[in-house]
Amino acid sequence: MRSTPLLFLFVSLLVAACGQRGRGTGAERALMAPGAAQASSGTDSAPRAPDTVFVASAVPPEIEARMRGVSYPEGAEIPLSELRYLRLSYRDFDGAVQQGEMICNQAIAADLVAIFRQLYLAAYPIRSIRLIDDFGGSDDASMEADNTSCFNYRKAVGLRRLSRHALGMAVDINPLENPYVRGGNVRPASGKPYADRTRSFPHKIDRTDLCYKLFRDHGFAWGGAWRSVKDYQHFEK
Ligand SMILES: [Zn+2]
Question: 81 alpha carbon to ligand 1 midpoint, in Å?
């Protein structure tokens, strides 16, 4: 019988320990669940910075209104239903997040959304991404402003045939630093200092450039690889 108090004590301690552990586990569970819920609701309600968007949609009526008679003339051979309106976040030359807009052919919309998302994630600097309609449909004005754009219903430079831009199948990136060069003809005119591609300078597209690699990987041809004409800003399918 001498052992009874000791046994009682032992059992009591064991029960107490189990109870303690049980309560502890329960308390941890109780704490974890609300904690997890709080963390997720906190993420939802917290302001997301920077806010980004990479979306392709049908051309909205207000955008169509901006395009008609400008980048999209009467008699254009491509129906608007085959074009897509893209909203694309990008980093400008100061590294600030900006929201761009672009019109392209539906056939390359998914490519462009993926490419510009990658460019954004890599903080690839782009001067601006605005519709050519903001420049009165003038390719020269858009290039002089170093604007990145895609669709513009126009003839190829110096040719009678339609440009791939007229079908929304070509994109020009940072055109000032990556001009169109044909002999002494440089477009935009203020892109002349950048016609010499042996020089190195910021925003230059060459075969080591991320932009070049992404477009190549998505099956685009680069105008900088052409023979007689060099169009360093230009990627087309
Ligand atoms: Zn082009």
Answer: 22
- 56 CA distance to ligand 1 centroid (A)? 21
Ligand 1 centroid vs 97 CA: distance in angstroms? 24
The two three-digit tokens of residue 190, written as one number: 């203020």
d(CA 230, CA 195): 9
Q: How many angstroms separate the Cα of 33 from the Cα of each of 109, 215, 220?
A: 42, 46, 49
Please write the tens of the pLDDT for every residue from 126-155: 999 999 999 999 999 999 999 999 999 987
Q: What's the gap in Å between 176 CA and the centre of ligand 1?
A: 12
Ligand 1 centroid distance, CA of 183 (Å): 17
Cα separations in angstroms, 226 against 43, 58, 90, 157, 182: 49, 33, 28, 14, 11
Q: What is the pLDDT of residues 55-84, one digit of tens each?
A: 999 999 999 999 999 999 999 999 999 999
Instruction: Answer whether 180's CB lies under 8 Å from 229's CB.
Output: yes
Check if the beta carbon of residue 56 is closer than 8 Å to that of residue 85.
Answer: yes
Question: What value, to the nearest 5°, has the Cα angle with vertex 172 and ends 188 and 138?
Answer: 55
CA atoms within 13 A on the CB side of 73: 9
* Strand ranges across the sheet with 97-105: 54-58, 83-91, 97-105
Distance 150 CA to ligand 1 centre (A): 8
> If you measure from the C-alpha of residue 24 to the centroid of ligand 1, how many angstroms do you get, rounded to a whole number?
67
